[in-house]
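Hi Q.,

Before the meeting this afternoon, I wanted you to have the NAP prediction in hand. No need to reply - just skim if you have a minute. The sequence and ligand are here:
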Amino acid sequence: MDFKELGRTSVKVPAIGIGTWEMGGGISRDTTGDKEAIRAIRKAIELGMTLIDTAEMYAAGHAEELVGEAIKRFRREQLFIVSKVAPHNLHYDDVIRAAEESLERLQTNWLDLYLIHHPNPEIPVKETIAAMEKLVERNLVRFIGVSNFDVSQMEAATRCLSKNEIVVNQVEYNLLARSIERDVLPYCVRHRVTVMAHMPLARGGLPRNKFLQEIGKKYEKTAAQVALNWLIAKEQVIAIPKAVNLDHLEQNAGAVGWQLSKDDMEHISSHFR
Ligand SMILES: NC(=O)c1ccc[n+]([C@@H]2O[C@H](COP(=O)([O-])OP(=O)(O)OC[C@H]3O[C@@H](n4cnc5c(N)ncnc54)[C@H](OP(=O)(O)O)[C@@H]3O)[C@@H](O)[C@H]2O)c1
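Predicted structure with the ligand bound:
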């Protein structure tokens, strides 16, 4: 696995982690795929994708329960667990309670990273940030960050911080969705905030792309591996593809350890522009 610095913390995180949206259900709990999901998370860890992204909203908490079950057999320090507080839980007491409940479902004593899942203009971000900093002070959370924030929302959140930094903005980023290149990505590079690319495979659309398949042939890589390699070649960017299929997991772990040529990087960028 390749590692990148998390924000400017000097902590290293894997360039490719694993997402858990749709594990254990969608917006509600569905236990029919539990076995496959647990097997997938364990396999991801064994392959070096030790950064696991989840959220209280996923499968109404059941995704976190599955992560909790999957990680039991691993040394906790070896893992980097990310969860998110839902936008309706951004009042101070709600943030604290939501984090405690996530920890319980994850059966762990701390979250490596806790994110505000979406901005909520109805609730002052100052209140939310104060609660997140309290969680750090109580050692329940190591680092804090945001998700789906634009530049002005990131600036507003940053102004409310007293002791910590926003180390991550988790945003949609893939070859078919590149709007963050206009301002969010340059802002994050300038301020050394890690961009955690969600939907990095465009929900499975990119692995079927003929152009990427063709480029991949040169490197003996799949279209998915090319799409992920293109992302993580960028400064400050890491990716969290979700996969339950074991072949997909192997492929995603193999998106690192090699590099697209400069020409191919440019060719891909202009093809999808
Ligand atoms: N913060 C937010 O608002 C937000 C929003 C969306 C997502 N996320 C996070 O980001 C993660 C990733 O996003 P996502 O799950 O929406 O989409 P994604 O990772 O772009 O795509 C997942 C889909 O791609 C398939 N896939 C994975 N690897 C593949 C491969 N090598 N070849 C072919 N198909 C492959 C998966 O199939 P199988 O499962 O069958 O293997 C699944 O259907 C989520 O799970 C979640 O943790 C966060």
